[in-house]
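Question thread 4412

I'm putting together a teaching handout and wanted feedback from people who do this every day. The idea is simple: show students a protein as raw sequence, then show them the structure tokens that encode its fold, then repeat with a second protein so they can compare. Below is the first pair exactly as I plan to print it.
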Amino acid sequence: MSVEAGELHARDHAGFLEEVHSFEFWFQSVEGYLHDRPYGIAADTPMPELEPARRQALVSTLSTYCVGEVAALEASSGMIAFAPNRATKIYLATQAVDEARHLEVLLHRLHELGVDDAEATFEARSNPNLLAFRDRLLRCVAERDWLASVFAQNVILESMEFAAFHSHARTADPRTAQMLSGVLKDERRHIGFGENDLGRHLRRHPEDRKRLAALQHELDPLVLACFEDSLARLGMPASERPDVGRLYLESVARLGIAR
């Protein structure tokens, strides 16, 4: 952004939020890592030949990611209607754009892998635990439960995706890794919004930690089972999988919510 060093931090908190929730801030954030990368991948990135088993594992995993992005797209767009203020509505609009882009680049990568009917079939290929998570998240949104919606989407779902994408990108083929690197930058911004919004609420209403802990207790088994299946498909050794789960749990724990 065209902001002098330290200027953001010198502003009052409401002004700071107005700035970082704006479309201008969003545009400046994404332009640097999306410019000249159609579908999140530079044109000169090589197209690798994958062995059939590795290709099938990647197709299944990317299909599961698609379910998560659809869930976040539908949830973030639905939350706009009951967001508490204009700046938050604008922020959620930028998140909905991010989620739509993530879905688009994932579907494009599936097409590159030879899946012609990716949009019609990704749900059938995906992990059933994430489908159950999506249904629970969208129920929170349908009930216009702001606290539960932000926690389920911007803390639990985004932390789960960040941990999964971060681990996957380390061993992925060059095109998949580059695509995931751009998605990860968006996930950091989405998690930051959730932690900031809920952190401010919980400082005023610490009694709500108990309700969020109950929701986490309900959703954690779905998240961790999804991790286990996806990472096993990608060939990650069992000894390394607990580290991924720990990355997710540490992110959720930063809000001081004890199960």
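The second pair follows. I'd like the answer to focus on this one:
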Amino acid sequence: MGGDVTFVPLGSLVEPDRGISYGIVQPGMHVEAGVPIVRVTDVRNGQINQQNPLRVASEVAAKYRRTELRGGELLLTLVGTVGETAVVPPTLRGWNTARAVAVIPVRRDPGPRWVQYALQTGAAREHIRTRLNTTVQATLNLGDVSALPIPMPAASARGRILEILGTLDEKIELHRKMNETLEAMARVLFKSWFVDFDPVRAKAEGRAPSGMDAETAQLFPCEFVESELGELPVGWASVPVYDIATYVNGAAYKAFRPNDEGRGLPIIKIAELKGGVTSQTKFSDVAMPEKYRLRTGDILFSWSGNPDTSIDTFIWAHGDALLNQHIFRVDLHSPGERSFVLSTLKYLRPVFAEIARNKQTTGLGHVTAGDLQRLLVAKPDARVLAAWERVAAPIVAAAFRKKLESVSLCHLRDELLPRLLSGQLSVAEAEREVGAVA
């Protein structure tokens, strides 16, 4: 960008007839036919989770017209996990937000995307951190939001910077969608083989199983026996989810003696499972037992939190780290069972969410080792397991490669961002760096 950069307060960049506001203070109970709202837990990694939103009564939402979404606003989380941002897509027109989410109607010039990038810089995050009220839980007030300094180079420079960063974000988003497609493929196949038992049913009816070669089809039995799960293919077993792997829980957070200086290894909580290691991640240089050490490729199962957004299975795509409590590292009994264990846990996500929802207190729920011991799944014999690994492992590996590429792109974007916005890096230099990977 070059030259001096002018900073202006965020409040000067919003639509004057709307201003910066926070959403519904007391949403009340969920109303199935009500107005959906965005909560803090719905805003992660620049995205808004639109699945299973809390819905409030229309008469409650009517009192908060000022934060009724039109599309294009920038959302900023104010309580708990402070500083998460997302631009509202047109599809959320008519939605509202919770009290803990600020609605920022940024003017067309500079646009919400520019402000979103500006708020991701280390300088902006440090500005937010120093103004947090942490008496009960971290909270940012609207006065401090309005005062946030936003860099404002010339419009031409802003356009080129947005194009550079947008190129990276588009590729990251493309990888995310490709991963969704790959995971959907694996889920459909898993359900066919191990839930609906389609190959077995086909053979029982004298048909050739569809979608597989004769050698693979030969591995499946052609009849069922009764079990605790109901009909089960002959030779297969009904086993607790707890028995298909070893589940290692993380250490208590205080045991790490967390620091803000980046000393040691990052401490991985559920926020890091979703967003990776960020400026808000705490570190630890305490010598912890090896069982709490994470490495790239480890399977992790978050068993506590919001049932709809936190209970899930992940593959750790970052470097060495430390495992916090509320997350199981899932250790395999055999490397050849990796795709089966991963696919089983991912397929059961709705079941886990329902278990957690039935234990919900103050919005949080959990899945215990006891729940995993009670929940049964069908486990095939070793030959079918090996066949599944041959089919599923390439899909899992392809998705993980895309995830690793996305992590690298995120690191590049986050490295370029402050240097571009501060003028330390020229647009031409950034274009060359992005061109080498995008």
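Top answer:
Good format. For the second protein you could add a caption like this: The chain has a mean pLDDT of 92. The first strand starts at residue 7 and ends at 9.
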